[in-house]
Design a protein that fits this description.
Layout (H helix, E strand, L loop, with lengths): L1 H10 L4 E12 L4 E6 L2 E7 L11 E6 L8 E6 L5 H8 L1
Parallel strand pairs: 3-5
Antiparallel strand pairs: 1-2, 1-4, 2-3, 4-5
Amino acid sequence: MQIISDKNISKTEYGTTIQGNIVECKDPSIGRYLVKYQDSLMEAYSTSPSVQYPKNTSVYLFTTNGKLGEMKIILGSTKQLGSNYIEEYMG
């Protein structure tokens, strides 16, 4: 039983949260952004297209299965961007 359990746990993949910076908004209608993480540029999607992230905003990104090649989701800014940001994000 322990061997089966250990094997299943080792196959489980988890998401990872990383920190990046907004380079530009590629498509505001769907919340698609170009984000820089270390020396790489990648696309990421906002959880809410109504929330706009200005250039150079530091954001938290969630990577599915911990793989940078898969879809990245912007969880939010690392700093509060003002009352309008919070009100729009919270609905």
